[in-house]
Amino acid sequence: RLVALCFLDNLDNKEQVDHIDGDPLNNKLENLRWATNSQNQMNRDKFSNNKSGYKGVYYHKAAQKWTACIMFNGNTKYLGFYDTAEEASTAYVKASRELFREFSRV
Question: What is the value of pTM for the model shown?
């Protein structure tokens, strides 16, 4: 944050510093950008308890299918059911790139 405060303009008065590559130890200027809390959350890695291996992809036991969902503006958007985790991941990646644009991290 100190590097960003000293060297990055914050014209939109955003409250957080985002590490573009997701590595909080990489404080090179080209890896930092100002972000809102929401934008910073878009750039997160998959959760540590993720069992599918893909961000936003879960196995739905009742349907016996893979499902993808994404959070945007505080709402969960369900992207459908799929036969494979890879198909569900493809849907997540597409939605992430459309919704999160430069903050998409898949």
Answer: 0.83
